[in-house]
Amino acid sequence: MDVDLLKPGSVPISRDTVLSFEFLLDKDLLYTHLHKPNPDPSPTDLITKFYEAVAVTLKNRQELEPVDCMADTGSNELKIKLPAKNIAMKILSLKVAAHLNWNLAQLRSLPFKTQINLLQDLMYFTSEERAILDITNIEQIDIKSASPQFLFALLLFYRWLLNTSMHRITSNWQQRYGINEMSPADESIICCPENIKKTIQFLTDALQWDEVPHMLTFECFQMPTEENDTIEFQWTKASVISREEFSAEICYDLGTFFYYREEYEAAKLHFFKCKSFLNSIVKISGFATIDGKVLEIYMKACDPAADVHKKGLLEQLNSSIVNQFVGVTNVLQQDNLQKDIPLAHRINLELDIQGALSSGAFTVARDLLLKVKALNYVRCVLDRKSLNELCWDMEKNVDSFLWAVQVNWKLHSEEDKKLIKDHLLLLLIKDEIHDLLTRIKASDLSGIFSKAELILVKKHVVVDVPELLLKSESSFGISNKKRKPRAELRRLSKQLISTCDWKEIKDILTKIGMTNMGVAMWDINPQWELPIPLQSVVKNLPRGLLLDFTYVLLAKSKEQLQSRNWTVALELLIVLDKELQSAASNNTMQKLIKMVNWEVLLVQITQMLEEWPQTSVDKTALANACEVCLQVNDSSVLPRREILEACALCLLNLGRWEFLVAFEKRWTSFEVMSAVAATSLEMVKHKGTKKFPKELWDIVLPAFAPNPSQSKRGSYHDTSNLKTNVLAIVMKLRDARCLTAVISMFTKLYNVFRDEANMELQVECMNLWPATVSNANSYNLGAVSEMLSEVIRLGLKHYPNNVPWLRLMGDVNYSNGNYKISLSFYLKSLIICNDYFNIPMRCDDHVFRRMIKCCQALGCHTQAAVLCQFLEEPDYSLAFRILGEQKSCNDAVDAYYHCFWDTNILEFLIHTHNRRGEFQRRKCAIQVMGMLELNSNNNEEIQREASNLRKSVFLRALCKQYVF
Q1: Disulfide: which of 177, 591, 775, 940 matches 112 by Cβ 3.0-4.6 Å?
Q2: Where are the beta strands (DSSP E) in 436-567?
Q3: Helix crossing, 328-338 with 343-359: angle to 10°?
Q4: Separation between Cα atoms, residue 331 and residue 397, nearest integer Å
């Protein structure tokens, strides 16, 4: 027999092949087939084939047979009688689904339309009215009067709807289920917010049902026969579902849905309920299909600390360090009992906390470091290791040590208790800690010593122990009874550098003063440098605690400001201001108070600029304070230049432009800020319809001249670092209008200097600047491009959804040859404009033509050809040239053919592949062209919907490649 693989019917049928109608003839055949080890076709393929047979029967049938039901029902309506074969096929499908235990994961692998038909049929056959329900809008059902089997069908439908609404977002819907299966409009109706709300309410109520519906099984559905074509069911053969299994599955479904909707608290609640129900299940019926490992992953994702008690102590310690030392003392307390964490890790922990406190990276409890040191000290005692040194002169260390001993005392083993007690006796005998015995008696440790031991302590019997053995390894050579002054000074200096607590600073400074070493605070830490005006005033104060306290607080405030720890920096300055206010008043003190207030203003301005646009600073009060600061005319004390410039920048960003325009221009930086303010003011007043004043243009233009010092503006403006000053000011702009003015100016400068029409950049308000510059070729184009890129990055940092700036960034990278980066910025702008392509695309020939050029430059010629359709008038000549030239291609070629909707381009593709002998690709193009929605006879609405769908699919694919 000749076999032609392309001719249907010429291939002989295998002996093992089972045809669909055979299942109708032999009622046991389906059961036998499904219980094979690897049934072929698989259960889901069987369901698909059964419904395909139903569709073919209905298609071949010319008209439905009306049956007069008046005799039976007394009604005048005509009911539609379905062919017996179709009813049998539908019941076969339901039997297969029951064999799968109605597993949603397997049912979702069916074609989308088949899923809907299966659910509709299940609800039809289980309902008493035998009515076809509108699945797009299920009405509220009376639960109390509904039959158990119909409740099960309804429950399955709502679970399917919840899972479908979730998975349509997390998977490639159209590719998975086929473009022709279900239109996006119908899909959106099924998964609309109203139906989702109904679903959540139904499933939530289901958890409170008095009776749990039974699960329909294979035996529940009876096949019609030749003798009896009536539809009968045996619902008594349904399988019992336990309350725990039922609730576990419903909680899991709700939990996954809330998780993917990023409602983590609700998801956490349902996952923990699911875990509880799952642990209570005695016998599983197959209704619940929950993977325990996946459930645990969900629980950890919702609440990372949920299973923290199951982790090792070292892992808990690392988690605590990552989470800013939260719960670290509890971990160390447990480790003093279990001794799992290496001692080196615990000692390094002290250094980590000390470094965090000194850098101001984040704040922790003030006594955290003391508690950690005390717990480590106890661990050293228990391990019989060289002791981690503690300074017993500080009462806080003694209190922390006694706390560390008490917290676990009752939980320690007898051996550990003996070690701790012996060490306490040694400390009492050495008498290093003042009133140690009194403190022990006042604590929970009062009964640990026997009478004989107390008598020994009271008599001060000194054990003959070599002196070196009484000292820790780190304190050799230093007497515990009497420290050397220089060593004591080094210890106090170290504490002073590490702390930011003003009370502790004051206490340490008092102790340093008592050493009578005459050390100056600026010599303790070379990093403590104050601005010269502030330093000169501070050093004029009388020598003593006030001078030292003032210098250290100002230096530490500056340190915290540089570390962006605004709260601590402000706290130190406010404390200093109160201290100075309470001191004796004189001329120097009044000057210093004003200067401290200006430092407070500087911290607030810096905080506002760094936290823009969300900040806790009162912007109105801050702007008023800046105006007052700039208007100071006191000849005896004036704000330093840094503060004045910060005030001007603050006013510029807060929209106080009239004040800046009228303000005296003392330095070049004030000129630049005043010019930016004037430009922004004109832009707001005239809505971008009037030419901007040339003041800012004339100031900035010389910065890019071949020799900036040769400027027409005179010696006052003759600065070699003009470009640096301009960039420093521009990079501190935050207001969107100011940034728009500056960005448009730099864009115009770039276009004028480059003077290439095909490389021009486009942005709003650019045409309001001067159109020409004399001798433009001699200016530094690279410097303009670099500065423009920096300013746009700054603008996008604070306004990431600004579409014109995203497109401009794409233009800049396009002109510089960075085509991949350019594409990513163009796509980001399209994402924002079109809600991730959920709304129809608007034509933007400038962007799409540049995207085409970028794709061509990257060797992605098929992508470029698809983009040719996006133009307002499709560029066929360009598309044909791209597709017709024989060249290597770096994209997926025919995988993008389903994104073509223009039949002219598809016809050219078919012709090109046929000419080249590329028959597989020709076949792909033919299949795409044969789709019904691409028929040229379709009305405009269908054609527009087809193009919009393909546009969104294609652009999302590009985003996955170039953006995400």
Answers
A1: 177
A2: none
A3: 160
A4: 20
Secondary structure of 97-113 in HEC code, one letter for each residue: HHHCCCCHHHHCCCCHH
Q: In the predicted model, is pLDDT for residue 456 greater than 70?
A: no
The label of the residue with tokens 């209008």 reads 737
Encoded tokens for 575:
């404390």
User: How many other CB atoms are there within 10 angstroms of residue 951's CB atom?
Assistant: 21
Q: What is the DSSP string of 527-544?
A: T----HHHHHHHHTSPSS
Q: Which helix (H) or strand (E) holds 549?
A: helix 545-562
Q: How far apart are the first and last CA of the chain?
A: 55
Residue pair 882/868 in contact (Cβ under 8 Å)? The answer is yes
Q: How far is the C-alpha of 360 from the C-alpha of 357, rounded, in Å?
A: 5
CB 94 within 8 A of CB 118: yes
Q: What's the confidence (pLDDT) of residue 185?
A: 53
Do 166 and 256 meet the contact criterion of CB atoms below 8 Å apart? yes
Tokens of 800: 């990431």
Reference 961, options 835, 834, 823; nearest CA is 823
Task: Answer whether residue 466 shows pLDDT above 60.
Answer: no
> Could you tell me which of 887, 941, 879, 886 has the C-alpha nearest to residue 907?
879
Question: Which residues, in sequence order, are CB contacts of 575 under 8 Å at separation 6+?
Answer: 502, 553
d(CA 548, CA 505): 10
pLDDT above 50: residue 122: yes
Contacts made by residues 459-466, CB under 8 angstroms, sequence distance 24+: 460/429, 460/431, 461/429, 462/429, 463/429
Structure tokens at 173: 């819907």
Q: Which of 825, 785, 818 is nearest to 801 (CA)?
A: 825
Predicted confidence band of residue 857 (pLDDT cuts 50, 70, 90): very high
The letter for the amino acid at 463 is V
862, 879 in Cβ contact below 8 A? no
Q: What is the full DSSP assignment across 91-151?
A: HHHHHHHHHTTT-HHHHTTS-HHHHHHHHHHHHHHHSSS-----TTSPPPP-TTTS-HHHH
Is pLDDT at 144 greater than 80 in this prediction? no
Residue 481 confidence class, pLDDT cut points 50, 70, 90? very low
Distance between CA 655 and CA 798 in Å, rounded? 17
pLDDT band at 66 (very low <50, low <70, confident <90, very high): very low
CB count in 10 Å sphere of residue 342: 11
Token pair recorded at residue 124: 């039809």
Q: For the purposes of burial, counting CB atoms within 10 Å of the CB of 387, is it exposed (0-12), middle (13-18) or buried (19 or more)? A: middle
- Residue 792: per-residue pLDDT: 95
State mean pLDDT over 552-574. Answer: 90
Residue 826 CA to residue 814 CA, distance in Å, equals: 10
Amino acid symbol at 915: R
Residue 868 contacts residue 875 (beta carbons within 8 Å) = yes
| CA distance linking residue 207 with residue 248, whole number of Å | 9
> Is pLDDT at 749 greater than 60 in this prediction?
yes
908 and 926 in contact (C-beta within 8 Å)? no
What's the Cα-to-Cα distance from 418 to each of 405, 414, 431, rounded to whole Å? Answer: 12, 6, 20
Nearest CA to 641 among 633, 630, 650, 652? Answer: 630
- Tell me the DSSP string of 346-403: HHHHHHHHHHHHHHTSS---TTHHHHHHHHHHHHHHHHTPPP----TTSHHHHHHHHH
The DSSP bridge pattern shows strands 78-81 and 65-68 to be antiparallel
Residue 578 CB-density burial (10 A; 0-12 exposed, 13-18 middle, 19+ buried) = exposed
What are the residues whose beta carbons fall under 8 Å from the beta carbon of 583, sequence distance 6 or more? 546, 589
Query: What 3-state class would DSSP assign to 233?
Result: strand
